Amino acid sequence: MKAYPPKAHYRLHAGYIAWLLHRVTGLGLALYIFMHIWVIHNISRGKEAFNQVMAIVQSPLFHFLEVGLLACVVFHGLNGIRVVLIDFGPAAEKGPHKTWVWATIAVSAFLTVLGGVPMIRLAFH
Fold first, then answer.
1. Which of 16, 91, 107, 122 could disulfide-link to 85, CB 3.0 to 4.6 Å?
2. Residues 102-124: pLDDT tens digits?
């Protein structure tokens, strides 16, 4: 059996960037679920406890984090659709995977800016 030498480093190509971003956004979404459950849990502790938590999450910092959440949701969803199309659809036969990755990132960025601007405006009003 032939032994292959180990790679010293990974090349930073479009597929690797998409893979890495998909994992990071998935982790971000998983962490958000725990925070969301914690906030909703405070409903059971009474009106005053819930209002205290809501005062914290209405700070400008959390509005910026909401834009980050939007970016995670948009990229993770669009990249998931891209992966399904490559695995099961006609995109697997054509091969312009680099174009698909950069298009996914560009559309995700555009939709994040489009949805994030009203959120940031709300943070400062």
1. 91
2. 999 999 999 999 999 998 988 88
Domain membership of residue 109 as a residue range: 60-125
Residue 10, in any domain of the structure: no
Calculated CA dihedral for residues 95, 98, 104, 110, nearest 10 degrees: -140
Task: Establish if 118 belongs to a structural domain.
Answer: yes
Torsion of CA 25, 26, 27, 32, to 10 degrees: 90
Kindly report, residue by residue over 17-54, the tens digit of the pLDDT.
999 999 999 999 999 999 899 888 888 888 898 888 88
Spatial CA neighbour of 17 closest among 73, 98, 87: 98
Enumerate residues 6+ apart whose C-beta is below 8 A from 56.
62
Domain-embedded: residue 2: no
Q: Is the whole model's pTM more than 0.90, yes or no?
A: no
Give the total number of structural domains in the chain. 1
